[in-house]
Amino acid sequence: MTIKNNGDAPDNILCANRLTIQDCLERLRQLTDTLALCPTDITTRCELAAMLERLGQHEEALANWNAALSSQPNNLMAREGSARCRQWMGRSLQFPS
């Protein structure tokens, strides 16, 4: 996974809980590895989506929020995350059926 700054996140961004960039990248790797072993782990998928969203990676975050919603359509965290990403990206707030 490549993290790039799309201009939505400052260059010196720190992840949640004031993690360093190295800590943040390590956590992203851990989450990705966990999902490779268990792609249906909704908690991990939502954490990954939230981190990607905070890093300004709205396309990747949206893909993960939508994957969570495909397994749990009533997941409020995933619905809200999907809506935020769609707003950032200028897309309709309607969840695709």
Task: Provide a short characterization of the protein structure.
With 97 residues, this protein is mainly alpha-helical. The chain is built from four helices and no strands.
Describe this structure in words.
With 97 residues, this protein is mainly alpha-helical. The chain has one domain: Alpha Horseshoe (Serine Threonine Protein Phosphatase 5, Tetratricopeptide repeat). It contains four helices and no strands. It is globular, with a radius of gyration of 13 Å. Mean pLDDT is 83; it is low at 4-14.
List the keywords:
single chain, 97 residues, mainly alpha, Serine Threonine Protein Phosphatase 5, Tetratricopeptide repeat
**How would you classify the helix and strand content by structural class?**
mainly alpha
CATH class: Mainly Alpha
| Helical content band | 55-70%
Largest sheet descriptor: none
Low-confidence stretches: 4-14
The CATH homologous superfamily is called: Tetratricopeptide repeat domain
- Any idea what the radius of gyration is? 13 Å
What's the β-strand tally? Answer: 0
Please write the string of helix (H) and strand (E) elements.
HHHH
- Estimate the mean pLDDT confidence: 83
Tell me the CATH topology. Serine Threonine Protein Phosphatase 5, Tetratricopeptide repeat
How would you sum up the global shape? globular
CATH-derived architecture: Alpha Horseshoe
Q: Please, how many helices? A: 4
- Counted up, domains total 1
Spatial separation of the terminal alpha carbons: 27 Å
Strand content: under 5%
